[in-house]
Amino acid sequence: MSIITTVGGRLSQAFLLLLVMSLIGFVGIHSVGNPVYNIVNIETATTEDIRRATIALGLDQPLWQQYLLFLKNVVTGNFGTSYIYHLPAFDLVMSKLPATFELASIAMLIAAPTGIMLGLLAGRRHGSSVDRNVLKASVSALSIPSFWLSMMLIMLGAVILGWFPSGGRGATVSLFSREWSFLTLDGLRHLTLPALALAVPNIALIARLARSGTIEMESQDFTRFCRAKGLSSRRILFRHTLPNISVPIVTIVGMQFGGMLAFAVVVETIFAWPGVGKLLIDSIQLLDRPVLMATLTFVSVAFVGLNAIVDLFYAVLDPRVRLSA
Amino acid sequence: MPSKDLGSALLAAAFATAVSVAPLGATAFAEGLRIGTSYKLMTLDPHYADLNENTSLLSHIYERLVNQDEHLEPQPGLATSWRQLSPTQWEFKLRDGVRFHDGSPFTARDVVYSIERVRDFLKPPSGGFQLYVKGIKAVTTPDPLTVVIETSSDAPTLPLSLTSIFIMPHKADGFATTEELNSQARPVGTGPYKFDSWQSGEVLNLVRYDAYWGNATAWSDVTFRVIESPAARVAALSTGDVDIADYIPARDVEGLENRGLKVDSISAARSNFLQFDIGRDQPPGVTGKSGDPIKNPFRDKRVRQALTMATDRAFLADRILLGYGTAAAQLFPPGLSGTSVKLKVEAPDYDGAKKLLAEAGFSDGFNVMLAGPAGRYPGDSESLQAIAQNWARIGISVQPVVAPFSVFATQRSNGDYPVWYGGCSGEAVTLCLDAVLASPNTDLGTGSLNYGKYHNESFDEMLVKAKAMEAGPERNESLARATELVMADYPILPLYHFHLIVGHGQKVGSYAVHPRGWTTAMQATPSED
Amino acid sequence: MKVETIRALWKRPTRKSVSLSKLLLATYILLALVAPIIAPQNPHDPLQIYAWEASSPPLAMGGGGYTYLLGTDGLGRDIVSTILYGLRISLVVSITSTAIAALIGVAAGVSAAYFGKWVDVVIMRIVDLQLSLPTILVALIAIVTLGPGIDRIILAIIIVQWAVYARIARGVALSEISKSYLDAARLQRLPTRRVIFRHLLPNSIAPAITLVPIELGHAVALEATLSFLGLGVPIDKPSLGSTVASGFQYLLTGQYWISLFPGLALFGLIASINFVGEDVRRLLDPRNRSI
């Protein structure tokens, strides 16, 4: 009963969120400039041509009418056609999704184990120099602007060492009728640097969380009891502490995964990674409103959706948490 | 000149006609070519957008009736010869034995279909190509290999107009839509390469068309990778990820050459210049030294002349473009048809400029905003900064403002700027004379880039007369005279003709850069070994 | 110099590093204040820039009669001067926006708690909406809508950050309201203004202040990111972020100094703010002391 009302509240809130965001995004991109200048050949198009193209895109209508039309179309699942690529906007977003998804997944595959190990290590020796260094390293890692981190990774890995390419996606293989690059060696080489750039702040976040969880567990009577019984530290750590701190960690992993869909904007732009984030920035720069709206909607839905799943998961795992709280 | 049949084997490479393509057997080179390009292929519809971004890549698949060589002169393409039957009628003889990639023969019906698709079927926002065909009244086909085109008014340069129109195979059931071409159907043309696969804005894969009518192509397959950042293109070339990279920034040439890579360049058929708001009494962004509003200084020829004299154009070409640019005094680089040999770039004369300014009543100078796009053309924002320094020496304080191109273009057409950095390119200098210097006139289609509302009646008349003349030395001479007349009034401040720089690795022996800025596999000749 | 400082932060025990990060932050603020005096060049003045000396390597001699210690950027601006002036922009933007965001947020949170009913519903609904989206997305939408410019960036950051303060302040204010002394105040028919300004605000501000350093660090990073994406400061007024961004195209061909040094300065700034922020939080929140 309470779950249903919560889900209902969630849904209506998400719906409201999308509506407000689409309105702001719509008005925002409209005020920047006329996309027609990116479509016509500015050097041959007469004022008349530009006027006609503007009319053809419906950009001569009052903004509120354009917005209503947009809403009407979205209800039928149509986000419109990209001004630049002349492809259905939502299909375009979907075609970029595998690239972002595999990048975020690999980044998380790097970040979660590394972060947990560091956190367990630090928390187990609370107050030691290892602990202090992990803590400081995590504050530092969270202070590095992600665009600068990406650029330094390129400088080190691509320019100085020459081990990895500086950008692009590399060779892809078709699987489930989508193109994936993690299945080829060339693709993995292209994936390494951007995945690292995305992973570093997440390692720091996860390590901090795992550390504080471990400290809390270590101070509990149960752990002391185990130790008194002569169980090895390692056994206590992996059999007892780790399962107990897994709930908050899974939560943060889920939330950060959703966040990566959005934060990949910067990393994807720098590594010329053809994902959803780069599409978002490109569509802003090219004033491609249908694509911008489709991307914004998709990222918000994914983010909100993932968070809701995480909450649900949290409630299932940990009965103390009440969804309605 | 184009009237004799040069034979099907000659001039096979679509644009690089002057390149001596080594006679290589088709089987000798089964190698693939990878090209890193700045051109993002936007759509597979060859008639959708009249932008190099599209046409450059699609010219592997589709061909035109007439090609343009590196002097921009028309050369046979799918048409082997053409002649003017009357001032409003042209006859084109089509190449025999040409087949589309789907096996169907190329005939006059395809020409009719393509022209009508552009003229009648495609609706805005596509429509850039309409400019070239809207004067066509009727297309008739006396026989399958002859096309007669009738225009509504005199069309002395119709073959040149047709260098922009790609030929598609006709369809029995109406015209193909852009959506259709983008999604379901594979694009089919007569070109040397067949379409294999693409991802919009990312990659285009092409394979050799074995039944191509012309010289066998040198490469078994071609992969285009869209790499928008110039630095990333340079990096991809130097690490060997691609064999060719276009639009190399001048500053990277030395580094590439040090790594054993080669670089070819040519002066682009275009210019970049400053334009002034001449139409309004008080354009925004111009104030007196104390911030008070002043009357439009750019209406006075002496002010425009003074600013021209105070701009060190040689510096822009030599130091900002590092020699990969030519200081400009007109719209196309001298040497191309219709340009003047008399117009020269003078060394800056700051004292003379100051004197002129004082004569015009601006002895104290003024404040002005100087706008431009960011990173659209080589050296754009750097030039604004250098010009600001130049003009400061004659008491004019400049506030440079740069914005992404679409934002800049929107604000320029809104009339938000008093002086701005612009550019023009095209298949002939007449296009830029029309767009930049002729008075705005919707009926004639002139003045599309004349945002400053410059009017010069005697120039307009001379230009109309020159354009009506038949292609040849006399027409070129008249165009040059008209250019000299208008430039003496300093309507714009030409800055430079930048050079197109293309780099390539060992696999490629030479690359013939085309002044129109196209990047194609046909321009690349394999190295001998 | 900054590299050493950061390394030192790493090695020394906690007590010492507190003072070190504070020292670093103080140095940054001092440098920003005296930038016009100590910078060899004013990178905002086109007349002092020599475009032909663009991307000179570190230690190159410049036409202005001084050495480009850290080289020049792609437009010929001295990197040292650009860092100093960029620091000013980064600090002005982040401090202004964080301060205003905190004020607005606390005011909104307290109002929501005090007035309750629809005021509470409206304010908290907006807060929930905003906090359920990634900050970078909110910032992107805001800046696209507002347009470019320093004042717009400040506004965008305020829009992003006020909600966090509002949520915290509301929580604190609600618990204050439930305390008896406020009931007494109300019974005495004290004017609303007085209740809010004398009792609610002072008590709600303290918890909000613990957030300030963290949000300040976020603000610096956010300004840099927006500028990096080309949606921030104008090109003739470079911030640290936009300078790093402008160096990207030179990085791949080995001209590392345009991105490296301003980026290091930016990293040092954010790190010092964050370390100080950690300490502030630890001091103010006794429960966190052990963690």
From TrEMBL, chain A:
Residues 97-314 form the ABC transmembrane type-1 domain. The keyword Lipoprotein does not apply. The chain crosses the membrane at residues 12-32, 103-123, 144-164, 191-210, 245-271, 291-317. InterPro entries: BPD_transp_1_N, MetI-like, MetI-like_sf. It holds the Pfam family BPD_transp_1. The keyword Ion transport does not apply. Keywords: Cell membrane, Membrane, Transmembrane, Transmembrane helix, Transport. It comes from the Bacteria. GO terms for biological process: transmembrane transport. This is ABC transporter permease. It comes from Ferirhizobium litorale. The lineage of its organism: Bacteria, Pseudomonadati, Pseudomonadota, Alphaproteobacteria, Hyphomicrobiales.
UniProtKB/TrEMBL annotation, chain B:
GO terms for cellular component: ATP-binding cassette (ABC) transporter complex; outer membrane-bounded periplasmic space. InterPro entries: Peptide/Ni-bd, SBP_5, SBP_5_dom. One of its GO terms (biological process) is peptide transport. Its main location: periplasm. Keywords: Signal, Transport. It holds the Pfam family SBP_bac_5. It is found in: Periplasm. Residues 73-425 form the Solute-binding protein family domain. The keyword Membrane does not apply. It comes from Ferirhizobium litorale. Belongs to the bacterial solute-binding protein 5 family. CDD domains: PBP2_NikA_DppA_OppA_like_2 (cd08498). One of its GO terms (molecular function) is peptide transmembrane transporter activity. This is ABC transporter substrate-binding protein.
TrEMBL record, chain C:
It is a multi-pass membrane protein. One of its GO terms (cellular component) is plasma membrane. It comes from the Bacteria. PROSITE patterns: ABC_TM1. The keyword Cell membrane applies. GO terms for biological process: transmembrane transport. Keywords: Cell membrane, Membrane, Transmembrane, Transmembrane helix, Transport. The keyword Transmembrane applies. Its main location: membrane. Residues 87-277 form the ABC transmembrane type-1 domain. It is found in: Cell membrane. InterPro entries: BP-dependent_transpt_permease, MetI-like, MetI-like_sf. The chain crosses the membrane at residues 20-39, 91-115, 195-214, 256-277. Belongs to the binding-protein-dependent transport system permease family. PANTHER family: ABC TRANSPORTER PERMEASE PROTEIN (PTHR43386:SF26), OLIGOPEPTIDE TRANSPORT SYSTEM PERMEASE PROTEIN APPC (PTHR43386). This is ABC transporter permease. It comes from Ferirhizobium litorale.
